[in-house]
């Protein structure tokens, strides 16, 4: 009978951030002040791919902002509040048929 060796490293599970929470590192490192336009935000953050679900599906910030329907944001909170429903819609849609099939495969 064999016993597994103890795992190395920390015991805390890795967390996966998606949605507006995934933007925190970009916002904290960017030289961005508000009020700001969508174009200024995309330039300052580098148009990152934002994960919108736990399956690691992503959408470009510029694409998500195009769906917001607002181009000027008075504060970071207003920006995040406007972006949240768009990312939730992406999450709810499941990323399309291809993403759903890929999620079912074991590899």
Would you mind describing this structure in some detail?
- This protein has 107 residues and is mainly alpha-helical.
- The chain has one domain (19-96).
- 45% of the residues lie in helices and 9% in strands.
- The protein has 5 helices and 4 strands; from the N terminus they run αβαββαβαα.
- A two-stranded antiparallel ribbon has the order 1-4.
- α3 (61-68) packs across α4.
- The longest helix is centred in the last third of the chain and has 18 residues, at 76-93.
- The mean pLDDT is 81.
Keywords:
single chain; DUF2795 domain-containing protein; DUF5789; 4 strands; 107 residues; mainly alpha
Provide the fold topology.
Layout lengths: L23 H6 L6 E2 H8 L3 E3 L6 E3 H8 L3 E2 L2 H18 L3 H8 L3
Antiparallel strand pairs: 1-4, 2-3
Helix pairs in contact: 3-4
Provide a brief overview of the structure.
The protein is mostly helical. The chain contains five helices and four strands.
Please give the domain count: 1
Mean pLDDT: 81
Global outline = globular
Spans where pLDDT lies below 50 across 5 or more residues: none
Tell me the Rg in angstroms.
18 Å
Strand content: 5-15%
Side-by-side strand order of the widest sheet? 1-4
Distance between the termini: 30 Å
Order of helices and strands: HEHEEHEHH
DSSP summary, beta strand count: 4
- Portion of residues in helices? 40-55%
